[in-house]
């Protein structure tokens, strides 16, 4: 696993434990060599994004009990693949993100300035 640092260079904070998210299902947007999708962006789901994701073939809102997945709803936090977030951003459908819970590896794909424009302060 890569070092658990966020895009601000600080300790990576949990994204969500309900539902449990992250490639490693540890509640954080940690990543490493096995995470080929780079699930590094901590997002707050919106109806718009969930509809967009379903439209492009990644249905995150439908429950999948066989995978112990209840489906996401508006307001849920989820570690999203950086390329999917960027695609949604380019289509004006990207959900807001939590910087302190977004892994620093995200910066290899998306500049910090772009992330900050979609960031929310949840504290």
From TrEMBL:
Superkingdom: Bacteria
Protein name as catalogued: DUF2237 domain-containing protein
Source organism per UniProt: Parasedimentitalea denitrificans
């Amino acid at each position: 696993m890569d070092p658990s640092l966020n895009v601000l260079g600080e300790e990576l904070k949990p994204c969500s434990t309900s539902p449990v998210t992250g490639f490693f299902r540890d509640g954080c947007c940690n990543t490493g060599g096995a995470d080929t999708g780079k699930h590094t962006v901590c997002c707050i789901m919106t109806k718009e994004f969930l509809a967009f994701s379903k439209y492009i073939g990644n249905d995150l809102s439908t429950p999948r009990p066989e995978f112990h997945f209840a489906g996401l709803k508006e307001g849920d936090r989820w570690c999203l693949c950086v390329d999917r977030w960027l695609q949604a951003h380019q289509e004006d459908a990207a959900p807001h993100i939590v910087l302190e819970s977004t892994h620093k590896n995200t910066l290899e794909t998306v500049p910090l300035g772009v992330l900050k424009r979609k960031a929310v302060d949840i504290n």
